[in-house]
Protein backbone atom coordinates (compact mmCIF):
# COMPACT_ATOMS: atom_id res chain seq x y z
CA UNK A 1 0.00 0.00 0.00
CA UNK A 2 3.00 2.33 -0.28
CA UNK A 3 2.35 3.18 -3.92
CA UNK A 4 -0.11 5.75 -5.22
CA UNK A 5 -2.44 2.98 -6.32
CA UNK A 6 -2.11 1.37 -2.89
CA UNK A 7 -2.93 4.67 -1.22
CA UNK A 8 -6.10 4.86 -3.34
CA UNK A 9 -7.12 1.34 -2.32
CA UNK A 10 -6.35 2.13 1.33
CA UNK A 11 -8.48 5.28 1.18
CA UNK A 12 -11.37 3.20 -0.20
CA UNK A 13 -11.02 0.46 2.41
CA UNK A 14 -10.36 2.76 5.36
CA UNK A 15 -11.83 6.20 4.61
CA UNK A 16 -10.91 9.05 6.91
CA UNK A 17 -13.74 10.22 9.16
CA UNK A 18 -15.25 13.36 7.70
CA UNK A 19 -17.19 16.07 9.42
CA UNK A 20 -19.10 18.07 6.87
CA UNK A 21 -20.26 21.59 7.58
CA UNK A 22 -23.82 20.66 6.57
CA UNK A 23 -24.14 18.07 9.33
CA UNK A 24 -22.30 20.18 11.88
CA UNK A 25 -24.59 23.15 11.15
CA UNK A 26 -27.68 20.93 11.31
CA UNK A 27 -26.82 19.72 14.79
CA UNK A 28 -25.93 23.26 15.86
CA UNK A 29 -29.37 24.30 14.65
CA UNK A 30 -30.97 21.54 16.74
CA UNK A 31 -29.01 22.67 19.82
CA UNK A 32 -30.13 26.30 19.36
CA UNK A 33 -33.74 25.15 18.99
CA UNK A 34 -33.37 23.02 22.12
CA UNK A 35 -32.07 26.03 24.05
CA UNK A 36 -35.04 28.11 22.86
CA UNK A 37 -37.37 25.27 23.84
CA UNK A 38 -35.91 25.05 27.36
CA UNK A 39 -36.29 28.81 27.83
CA UNK A 40 -39.86 28.59 26.53
CA UNK A 41 -40.50 25.64 28.84
CA UNK A 42 -39.57 27.63 31.94
CA UNK A 43 -41.50 30.72 30.84
CA UNK A 44 -44.59 28.63 30.05
CA UNK A 45 -44.33 26.66 33.29
CA UNK A 46 -44.06 29.89 35.27
CA UNK A 47 -47.10 31.40 33.53
CA UNK A 48 -49.20 28.22 33.89
CA UNK A 49 -48.39 27.92 37.60
CA UNK A 50 -49.21 31.61 38.06
CA UNK A 51 -52.61 30.98 36.41
CA UNK A 52 -53.28 28.23 38.97
CA UNK A 53 -53.09 25.14 36.71
CA UNK A 54 -52.18 21.81 38.31
CA UNK A 55 -48.56 20.66 38.02
CA UNK A 56 -49.27 17.64 35.79
CA UNK A 57 -51.04 19.79 33.18
CA UNK A 58 -48.26 22.38 33.40
CA UNK A 59 -45.63 19.71 32.64
CA UNK A 60 -47.63 18.26 29.74
CA UNK A 61 -48.21 21.68 28.13
CA UNK A 62 -44.64 22.84 28.67
CA UNK A 63 -43.19 19.58 27.28
CA UNK A 64 -45.48 19.99 24.26
CA UNK A 65 -43.58 23.17 23.53
CA UNK A 66 -40.25 21.32 23.50
CA UNK A 67 -41.49 18.61 21.12
CA UNK A 68 -42.93 21.24 18.77
CA UNK A 69 -39.82 23.45 18.66
CA UNK A 70 -37.13 20.76 18.31
CA UNK A 71 -37.76 18.58 15.23
CA UNK A 72 -36.97 15.06 16.48
CA UNK A 73 -37.07 13.63 12.96
CA UNK A 74 -34.45 15.95 11.43
CA UNK A 75 -31.45 13.55 11.70
CA UNK A 76 -33.59 10.66 10.46
CA UNK A 77 -34.90 12.74 7.58
CA UNK A 78 -31.37 13.68 6.55
CA UNK A 79 -30.33 10.01 6.58
CA UNK A 80 -33.37 8.94 4.57
CA UNK A 81 -32.69 11.64 1.97
CA UNK A 82 -29.10 10.45 1.60
CA UNK A 83 -30.29 6.82 1.30
CA UNK A 84 -32.70 7.73 -1.50
CA UNK A 85 -29.93 9.61 -3.31
CA UNK A 86 -27.57 6.62 -3.03
CA UNK A 87 -30.30 4.29 -4.30
CA UNK A 88 -30.92 6.53 -7.34
CA UNK A 89 -27.17 6.69 -8.03
CA UNK A 90 -26.93 2.88 -7.80
CA UNK A 91 -29.77 2.52 -10.33
CA UNK A 92 -27.74 4.75 -12.68
CA UNK A 93 -24.68 2.52 -12.22
CA UNK A 94 -22.86 4.93 -9.90
CA UNK A 95 -21.62 3.37 -6.68
CA UNK A 96 -20.86 5.50 -3.65
CA UNK A 97 -18.26 4.39 -1.11
CA UNK A 98 -18.83 7.36 1.21
CA UNK A 99 -22.51 8.23 1.79
CA UNK A 100 -21.62 11.45 3.61
CA UNK A 101 -20.17 12.82 0.37
CA UNK A 102 -23.46 12.50 -1.54
CA UNK A 103 -24.71 15.85 -0.22
CA UNK A 104 -21.44 17.51 -1.17
CA UNK A 105 -21.88 16.21 -4.73
CA UNK A 106 -24.88 18.48 -5.14
CA UNK A 107 -22.61 21.51 -4.85
CA UNK A 108 -20.33 20.48 -7.74
CA UNK A 109 -20.37 22.93 -10.64
CA UNK A 110 -17.05 22.01 -12.29
CA UNK A 111 -15.85 18.48 -12.90
CA UNK A 112 -12.59 17.26 -14.40
CA UNK A 113 -12.20 13.73 -15.80
CA UNK A 114 -8.59 12.52 -15.90
CA UNK A 115 -8.67 8.82 -16.72
CA UNK A 116 -5.08 8.48 -17.86
CA UNK A 117 -2.35 9.34 -15.42
CA UNK A 118 -4.59 9.53 -12.37
CA UNK A 119 -2.71 6.90 -10.44
CA UNK A 120 0.81 7.50 -11.74
CA UNK A 121 1.24 11.27 -12.15
CA UNK A 122 1.06 14.03 -9.58
CA UNK A 123 0.33 16.88 -12.01
CA UNK A 124 -2.73 17.61 -14.10
CA UNK A 125 -2.90 19.10 -17.59
CA UNK A 126 -6.26 20.38 -18.77
CA UNK A 127 -6.98 19.42 -22.37
CA UNK A 128 -10.03 21.63 -22.73
CA UNK A 129 -13.42 22.56 -21.37
CA UNK A 130 -16.92 21.31 -22.12
CA UNK A 131 -20.00 22.90 -20.61
CA UNK A 132 -23.68 21.97 -20.58
CA UNK A 133 -25.65 23.77 -23.29
CA UNK A 134 -28.80 25.18 -21.61
CA UNK A 135 -30.95 24.71 -24.73
CA UNK A 136 -30.16 21.03 -25.27
CA UNK A 137 -28.91 19.94 -21.82
CA UNK A 138 -25.97 18.24 -23.58
CA UNK A 139 -22.23 18.81 -23.49
CA UNK A 140 -20.81 21.44 -25.83
CA UNK A 141 -17.91 20.70 -28.16
CA UNK A 142 -14.44 20.68 -26.63
CA UNK A 143 -13.04 24.21 -26.23
CA UNK A 144 -9.24 24.06 -26.10
CA UNK A 145 -7.99 27.64 -26.21
CA UNK A 146 -8.34 30.42 -23.67
CA UNK A 147 -9.28 32.87 -26.46
CA UNK A 148 -12.18 30.65 -27.46
CA UNK A 149 -13.42 30.48 -23.86
CA UNK A 150 -13.03 34.23 -23.43
CA UNK A 151 -15.06 34.83 -26.62
CA UNK A 152 -17.78 32.48 -25.36
CA UNK A 153 -17.91 34.26 -22.03
CA UNK A 154 -18.20 37.69 -23.65
CA UNK A 155 -21.02 36.51 -25.94
CA UNK A 156 -23.31 35.53 -23.06
CA UNK A 157 -22.29 31.91 -22.84
CA UNK A 158 -23.29 29.87 -19.77
CA UNK A 159 -19.66 29.86 -18.62
CA UNK A 160 -19.50 31.87 -15.40
CA UNK A 161 -16.59 34.16 -14.61
From TrEMBL:
One of its GO terms (cellular component) is membrane. The keyword Nucleotide-binding applies. InterPro entries: ATPase_P-typ_P_site, ATPase_P-typ_TM_dom_sf, HAD_sf, P-type_TPase_V, P_typ_ATPase. The chain crosses the membrane at residues 29-49. It is found in: Membrane. NCBIfam families: ATPase_P-type. This is 4060_t:CDS:1. It comes from Paraglomus occultum.
